[in-house]
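Whether sequence alone determines local backbone shape is best considered at the level of individual chains. When preparing material for the folding task, we compiled for one chain both its residues and its backbone structure tokens. No coordinates are needed to read the tokens, only the vocabulary itself. For completeness, the protein is quoted in full, as a sequence line and a line of structure tokens:
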Amino acid sequence: MPTLFIRTLLIYSLMFAVLRLMGKRQISEMQPFDFAVTLLIANLASIPMSEPAVPLFYGMVPIIGLFIVQRLMSYASLKSVRVRRLVCGNPLIIIEKGVVNESVMRSANYSLSDLTEQLRLKDAFSVSQVEYAILETNGSLSVLKKSPQQGADDSEKGSESAGADGANEAQSLQRAGGSNGSGGSNGSGGSGGRPALMLVADGKIDPAALERAELSRSGLAALLKSCGVRAEDCLFALLNDDGTLHIQRKAGKNGCSEAAVYDLNAVKRRAGLIGLSVGSGRDGQSGKRGKGRGEAEWK
């Protein structure tokens, strides 16, 4: 028993020293390589502590070897951009100029639920509030929100555009770039008293969101039809608390997607649903449009 206790103290002291020398980063801040080394060290340390028949030396040497490998890789990453990209990867632009990059999300195995969850952790309760969202190499999401002045300018442009071309407002989904194109949506929805409601996610209608929005499936279909899109063609349809409807199409075969932000009251009038209470719509922002690049790589 005393021997087992001493072995445990020695392994613990070695692990403590190795982890301290590896750096003070938390688990959530580790690069994949560092995280893998940490898991391997923990697994190797448990063997000599739990099995007295295994020589202590057999547990300590692999731990020290992994530490040396980790330090060498960290030094190489600091000195070489190529090695750093190979070991750590590149940041990925999930949202660029207000446009969700569907192809980037697919390559990163990132779902809309993952995206909205991470945005809420950054106090962004609507995709419409975000100008840029970057998936860092350690898995965290960095968010740059749209400025209030930008939202105000977009509202003015949207109102002027609607007044000049009201007959074509239902076609205001503008092309948003895939890998080389540009497009997107402007505006800053979801800043009111409740989070934005994801009515449609990846072509599927959310019944719970419809119920909260006091909207039926037929009513939603009429709203989307007046905007020239069907539910199954939507990457998402978002009802913001400021009375705007943010819609983005799924990417086509050419990798391009289409997105726009509509004034809810204007859409309801076109769909013949002006008497229906949906969310908290307001007048004055009709068919806001904008463009943004949708490149699937960090530059």
